[in-house]
Amino acid sequence: xxxxxxxxxxxxxxxxxxxxxxxxxxxxxxxxxxxxxxxxxxxxxxxxxxxxxxxxxxxxxxxxxxxxxxxxxxxxxxxxxxxxxxxxxxxxxxxxxxxxxxxxxxxxxxxxxxxxxxxxxxxxxxxxxxxxxxxxxxxxxxxxxxxxxxxxxxxxxxxxxxxxxxxxxxxxxxxxxxxxxxxxxxxxxxxxxxxxxxxxxxxxxxxxxxxxxxxxxxxxxxxxxxxxxxxxxxxxxxxxxxxxxxxxxxxxxxxxxxxxxxxxxxxxxxxxxxxxxxxxxxxxxxxxxxxxxxxxxxxxxxxxxxxxxxxxxxxxxxxxxxxxxxxxxxxxxxxxxxxxxxxxxxxxxxxxxxxxxxxxxxxxxxxxxxxxxxxxxxxxxxxxxxxxxxxxxxxxxxxxxxxxxxxxxxxxxxxxxxxxxxxxxxxxxxxxxxxxxxxxxxxxxxxxxxxxxxxxxxxxxxxxxxxxxxxxxxxxxxxxxxxxxxxxxxxxxxxxxxxxxxxxxxxxxxxxxxxxxxxxxxxxxxxxxxxxxxxxxxxxxxxxxxxxxxxxxxxxxxxxxxxxxxxxxxxxxxxxxxxxxxxxxxxxxxxxxxxxxxxxxxxxxxxxxxxxxxxxxxxxxxxxxxxxxxxxxxxxxxxxxxxxxxxxxxxxxxxxxxxxxxxxxxxxxxxxxxxxxxxxxxxxxxxxxxxxxxxxxxxxxxxxxxxxxxxxxxxxxxxxxxxxxxxxxxxxxxxxxxxxxxxxxxxxxxxxxxxxxxxxxxxxxxxxxxxxxxxxxxxxxxxxxxxxxxxxxxxxxxxxxxxxxx
Length: 806
Known about the structure:
Elements: H1 2-17, H2 19-48, E1 59-65, H3 77-86, E2 90-97, E3 101-105, E4 111-118, H4 122-126, E5 132-133, E6 148-151, H5 153-160, E7 170-173, E8 176-183, E9 205-208, E10 224-229, H6 235-252, H7 254-257, E11 261-266, H8 267-272, H9 276-307, H10 309-317, H11 322-356, H12 373-392, H13 403-406, H14 414-449, E12 460-466, H15 475-490, E13 495-501, E14 512-513, E15 515-517, E16 529-534, H16 538-542, E17 546-549, E18 563-567, H17 568-574, E19 584-587, E20 590-600, E21 615-619, E22 629-636, H18 644-652, E23 661-665, H19 666-673, H20 675-709, H21 711-719, H22 724-756, H23 769-795, H24 799-804
Parallel strand pairs: 4-9, 6-8, 16-21, 18-20
Antiparallel strand pairs: 1-10, 1-11, 2-4, 2-10, 3-4, 3-7, 5-8, 6-9, 7-8, 12-22, 12-23, 13-22, 14-16, 15-19, 17-20, 18-21, 19-20
Helix pairs in contact: 1-11, 2-9, 2-11, 2-12, 9-14, 9-20, 11-12, 14-20, 14-22, 14-23, 20-23, 22-23
């Protein structure tokens, strides 16, 4: 222990003596450790931490697939009941209907709150116990007995200030009275992707899911099904059983279930679907930054080792063993990396605070992102690994006691020079890989942002509202409310046009129906058409181009002939090579026949990176059933958000109990839809620039050390007539060789890695020539500039000063 304390004191004293070296090494390592710790913290919360439920490895989700290659869909209510009664692979099955929203009244200003309907088995399936009160009872799934509610912990704190006597009190939701049955614990979190639950994954209230056996449907698929596997039953066995059940249901109900399969997905995989590859890519990218930082510090230590060779030989002459020298050097490295770990931890904390502002809005488990003991262990592991490697680096060269008497000038051995050159090549190669990745991600984002969405997003204010069915029970009442509301909004100062639609493009919600085309055989699975309710003025306000026919107008009411407008994708699929104007269709096999009166340009509703699907626009006044949820779209002359207060006041003048929610501009909606690609491109670009900086510092350090060691040689060359240009070319030739080797290796690695992540790219090939050429030029230029400064200084050496050392 005395020796260890002595080594630590000596190490600290040595680092304080060489402050510039110590500061450069600590800063370099801190950047690598801090960036890695920040990204690891995000990946651990989203990908690596177990789900916050009892035995989460047994949890799965069940989806329906309409065809072999079709997209996953929710479950039809009747199918869910059949799965629950016929399967034996599950301890429990539970369903969630996420489309249940509520208007809260009687607690101050009316507001729209998020809610979901769940089976009575849902919370027991997750292993969740109520903090106060009880869970739903099985008989509360029956019609007439379902008006009970469970509150989220946050809603309980916000509305009831955490009062424990809340159980048994009533709450007015959608003009109906609900009795509070329980309150969820503070640690409960509903973990799920927004896109899987109608654009929401945070709910304020939960109500029983009504299972009316007399009215269960198989043609709609709104429910999301969770299952807990029995002990000893794997997901594969459950999948095999459900395949048999799906086949039986296909024979029993061919009109709705033919060729419709069931897919079992582990819950952990479902939650991270679409996020795992991007986050692991970021973790790999920041790992490359750490490697570059380590290489940089290793180069610094090798350079310093050459200067300390005389000191080490004196120590050997005085009796120090190679093991004793190694222990001293490792101790110094531990002191160095400990300081870097502290600085890196502080940097990671700051980076996390910044990244939280840029996280994609749909990132699951974002609330669990925090630094903890596991992150501290990760930082310690990185630092310890670096300390061992750095500590052993100076021992690459053999230390001889006779060197203390023979050497007059500190120089690196041939082996040390080769190692330093290899490290510089490695730095350039790693930086090249990161720069190519950043270039591809940046170009991909540019291509994505320049995709024509099919509408004009600028100067549009959007706001959601929902009407209570008890006060607006019919299509006529809803249409009258819409007309009155839109008339008032259109008369507001600064408003150019206004309309209302059922599903906002890029808004995260959608719906589809099976169409029947007049004169055609019934279409098979996978031919659904996207359902778009709209008022007169909606299409014009959104700026969706009308290609043929006409828009909706006030005459398209409930008493007029039923009409519809389709998009180009629908025209191509259902009437290939024909004019769809005047053709007729039905949705979900029911009357009335609807005449197509217009064709619109395609809108990328699901995402800018996804092709448009067939769409069917229907007038709100002619919907087959009352639709109380709608989104206002208002085009303004100035700042759209500046009109929000006027819109609220206009709406309150009609019905003060109808609140507005999700008030935002259409530009914000579009920006949020590309949040994931923007987040990836931003981070990888930042890491690439950091890698470029570190690589240039590494090249500069090696060339400076090389110039210092070759000073006597340059003095002799200058004395024999070599010019400054000759000496400069001599130095740069060696630098160019290192740069060329690094670029060659880096390009090969970059192209290989780009193929691995090609699914994250949009509109750009993994081997994009423009990106590769730009990266090569940039890296070569920066590396040459880093080499030029020490090369120029060495070329201008005075021969007399250079030879005086000898």
